[in-house]
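Entry:
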Amino acid sequence: MNNINPEISAVSPISLTIDPAAETERIVAAMREQLRHTLRRRGFVLGLSGGVDSSVCAALAARAVGAQNVLCIFMPENDSDPESLTLGRLVAETFGLASIVEDIGPSLEAMGCYERRDAFIKQIEPEFGPGWASKIVIANALANEGYNISSLVLQRPDGTTEKLRMPSSVYLGIVAATNMKQRTRKQIEYYHADRMNYAVIGTPNLLEYDQGFFVKNGDGAADLKPIAHLYKSQVYQLAAYLGVPEEITSRPPTTDTYQLAQTQEEFYFALPYHQMDQCLYGLNESLPAAVIAASAHLSEDQVLRVWRDIRAKRKATRYLHLGPQLVMPIAELQGG
């Protein structure tokens, strides 16, 4: 009974363990090569959110080109958690990085981001207004046989909450308005990158990149994405090695997009990242569901449901990875 199935051992969390020193050197070397020879830029710009992914990217950028050649931008808005700015500043101070604050709230107000979002919410809750708060949550893939259905969670001024089903038009409208936040942030990043002749770093990990957890031409836009090949648990290993403050590594991953606090599992992923990592790894490596179930402490049926959810998200978000479609192929320009 105490014998360990070698297949199960191979996909246990330790199988995702990396050599953080070697991986850091590999990424840093690639970043230098891409910056100097492919992108031909002088340094790096990145939006620093106070999360572990952007913090690790900031630390890698400093190692690649020196802290003096990295600019971090904090971009709070009306719905941001103040802690995000505090943690972002902590990261910049830890690694000696230059930073600036660009409050995008006024720009979003001018574009009607909040007004447009609220107008869609009022289609199903006419009383929604000042003093209310909202977020979108998705039904857990483990509890559903069919498609995942998103719901709107509202908090009234008295603190009570309600959860409402949304017609697709309301869901799409809220998401479309909210996506203005990511696209505005990217516009700011590229402004500073252009004026300094820097390259913009994108910060998705493998789970986010694979599952399309980004906004097209928003946080999905970048000149390079140095950790897109790493599982989330591997990003945490790099964070520990690079010296990312514990205040950040101990903070649960959040979207920091809606007025109410929202975990990534609530909004997009079926499971906490350590279980999602194992499920994605098992699917990528064509391992049996039973192996993943034993390692991730799930049933085989739950693993199969998560795999269906992964495949569905890949299909639904494939267009996010596509460039502009052309009528006829055009030969790439040859560098001189």
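DSSP finds 14 helices and seven strands in the chain.
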